[in-house]
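Exercise 7. Predict the joint structure of the components listed below.
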Amino acid sequence: MDSGRRRTIISVTTPDFSALGVAEPLLRALVAENYHTPTPIQAQAIPPLLAGRDVVGIAQTGTGKTAAFALPILQRLSEVRVQTPPGTARALILAPTRELAIQIADAIATYGRNLSLRHAVIFGGVGQDPQVKAMARGVDILVATPGRLLDLINQRHIRLERTGILVLDEADRMLDMGFIRDVRRIIATLPKQRQSLLFSATMPPDITRLAEDMLTEPVRVEVTPAVVTVEAIDQRVFFVETASKRALLNALLDDRDLARVIVFTRTKHGANRVVEQLDKAGVVAEALHGNKSQSARQRALARFRSGDARVLVATDIAARGIDVDDVTHVINYELPNIPESYVHRVGRTARAGARGIALSFCDPSERPYLRDIEKLTRRPLSVVAGHPAAVAVSSPASAPADRRSPGGAPERRGFSAGRPATAAARPRPKSRYAG
Ligand code: AMP
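Solution:
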């Protein structure tokens, strides 16, 4: 029964990539990457960018902003075949660090794998000869850090007078790192007639000014960082093999303090599987995902809210817009590959000042996701060691030293707020969890 708490399902119709206008060769690359649904920044930015508009994007890393600009750029460049004269680039993407530049270039290679566009990446701290060589025939897309690029422009190895698309990524970091003057000098060598994009997590006055100078009637797209909410949440991670996740979940749910739990999976199929598993273990659970009708979703939610179902198993998309109070625990059965989704997921607990707990299961293939999440939240999750199901694959001794709790000792606490240890945390014979 629905009591006085807020119950809203905002039915969000999420367009897919083809509805945004993304062309077939790119769609194939996205399917290969398992991208099915655009992130909010992609949904907002791709259509105006494909239409040739300037865009100012307020978004941080982890929101999917790289694909938001890379896909339209690849598409627009592939629509017109041109010869690139030596030392020139048709599009320029400026990034503050070598790491980010490489990451962007990798994304370009991935999304553009079915197109025959050429790209190069340029950064300081290494010899310039290979970079000069890479530019010798000209490229479609050049990804660069400002210092080295300016160097190569001054040495006349690179000319940007034909560069019709410019992206400034992480503009606020460029400012912090003292690159803005270099950036302005580089921009001065580009044609005035061009498409320009600026992405920044924040908009300090210097960046607002730069945006005004470099953009023409830009479309503003913004995704508000959800990061603020995570501070109040106790966040922990279990390093666990995929095959042991099921036993770990069942063992955790032996603890009745996990009273109202949302379990997240990456896929609809995964959500159904977890519900079946829980059913076998005698735990009442409901699935919430996009394959269910609106009325089935409403029903699942109502049963979860009333407490008839102790567990709701949801995918990220389905969970958008749900508002349920008193969620005691969020369990990430599978880590999201979009770090921003992690923040949205864990934000489902700890509402209205309550202390929330978020437990993440991380198998070896998910370690890169965990790294991205910690980069976004700027906060390492505490590692839970000592749990039998997790211990089976990741004993305290095998946890990297920097993943331990302060003082060097691995975390060994329960998962109920305010209680030092619970049944779920007590070591039990391994055999109980076998299979
Ligand atoms: P970014 O904010 O561009 O650094 O992207 C963050 C992560 O999200 C990257 O690992 C991307 O591969 C991933 N990603 C971006 N867009 C999508 C999408 N639509 N679906 C799934 N993963 C995505």
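Discussion. The chain has two domains: 3-223, 227-425.
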